Amino acid sequence: MSMTLFGYYRSSASYRIRIVLNLKGLPWNYEAVLLNRGEQQQEGFLSRNPSGLVPVLESGNASLSQSLAIAEFIDEIHPDPALLPANSIERARVREIMGIIACDVHPLQNLRVLNWLREELDASDAQVTAWIHRWISSGFVAIESLLEQHNSDDQFCVGTTPTLADALLIPQVYNARRFALDLAPFPRLCAIDTHCQSLAAFADASPERQPDAPQ
Ligand SMILES: N[C@@H](CCC(=O)N[C@@H](CS)C(=O)NCC(=O)O)C(=O)O
User: Fold this and answer.
1) What confidence score (pLDDT) does residue 1 get?
2) Which ligand 1 atom is nearest residue 68's CA?
């Protein structure tokens, strides 16, 4: 079944799905939705996702939004290699990290939220940056502490193979660097980032390697 990902090179939620598709070794087509031009709010795209957010995955006749739902869908229909551990505690640990990133951090530094801070609350660039740092830091403090308690090898967030937790963490680290957050307090998280970036599935998914990235 052919799959098309509607995304944007710098969208970390789209980046998650690129990693998942690459880890599964699946072929996929890419359609850029240029968030910098507001294409996510145009009628053509809203008919695919009324939330006006990327990513959207088209798989056969189905059109799916929400990166976590998409990631688990891909993992279910292409079970090998599994991106959720078989062990229930480890599976919950993966979802724990996914929850911190997808629920507690990412929504607070999304484009529409930052635009609202600027346009409606008149926040300055420095205030917006402080806001972004505040929320990424508190999520990373929690993840670093979880890694310290449960992770022994600093290669992946949970266990000895890539999971959905890594597919969410690496794009969030990219975002943190993009907004110049000091990552020195998060050595374990950075070690996992370094290791994952050495793998083609992660490196090929990086924003600068996407066709809509500025050349
Ligand atoms: N919960 C959604 C979040 C999607 C999301 O926030 N996408 C961002 C890019 S990372 C977006 O499309 N932003 C456009 C906007 O804010 O207008 C998911 O996981 O798919």
Assistant:
1) 76
2) 19
Share of residues in the chain with pLDDT > 90 (%): 96
User: What does the pLDDT read at residue 151?
Assistant: 84
How far apart are the C-alpha atoms of 140 and 13, rounded to whole Å? Answer: 17
What's the token pair of residue 57? Answer: 């995955």
| Residue finishing a domain among 81, 112, 135 | 81
Is residue 59 within 8 Å of residue 73, measured between CB atoms? yes
Nearest atom (ligand 1) to Cα of 66: 20
Helix, strand, coil percentages for the chain (3-state, nearest 5): 60, 10, 35
Average pLDDT, the chain: 97
For 60: left if phi > 0, alpha if psi spans -120 to 50, otherwise beta; the answer is left
- Is the shortest distance between the CB of 67 and ligand 1 below 6 Å? yes
CA of 79 to the centre of ligand 1 (A): 26
Residue 55, in any domain of the structure: yes
Q: Is the CB of 112 under 6 A from ligand 1?
A: yes
The verdict on 35 and 127 lying in the same domain is no
- Asked whether 113 lines ligand 1 (CB < 6 A), one says no
Taking 50 as the pLDDT cut, the residues of the chain under it are none
Tell which residue, 24, 45, 1, 11, has the closest CA to residue 210: 11
Ligand 1 midpoint to CA 207 (Å):
15
